[in-house]
Amino acid sequence: MSCLKRILLVEDSPQDAELTLHALAGSHLADDVIHLRDGAEALDYVYRRGRFADRPTGQPALVLLDLKMPKVDGIEVLRQVKSDPNLKTIPIVVMTSSREEGDLLRSYELGVNAYVVKPVRFQEFVEAVKQIGSFWAMVNEPPPGSLGGVTHASQLDRMQPGDA
Amino acid sequence: MVSPLAIGLVEDNPGDARLIEEMLHAPPVEPFQISRSSRLDELLLRLKGESLSVLLLDLGLPDSQGLATFYRVHERAPQMPIIIFSGAIDEALAVDAVAHGAQDYLVKGHIDSVLLKRAIRYAIERKRAESQIQELNDALERRVLERTAQLEEANKELESFSYSVSHDLRAPLRHIQGYVEMLREATAGKLPEQAERYLTTITAASVKMGQLIDDLLAFSRMGRAEMAECRVPLDRLVQDTIRDLEMAINGRNVVWRVGSLPEVVGDPAMVRQVLANLAGNAVKYSRMRNPAQIEVGCAGEEDGRLILFVRDNGAGFDMQYAGKLFGVFQRLHRAEEFEGTGIGLATVRRIVSRHGGRVWAEGELDRGATFYFTLRSAQSLMQPAAT
Question: pTM of the predicted model, to two decimals?
Answer without folding.
Answer: 0.58
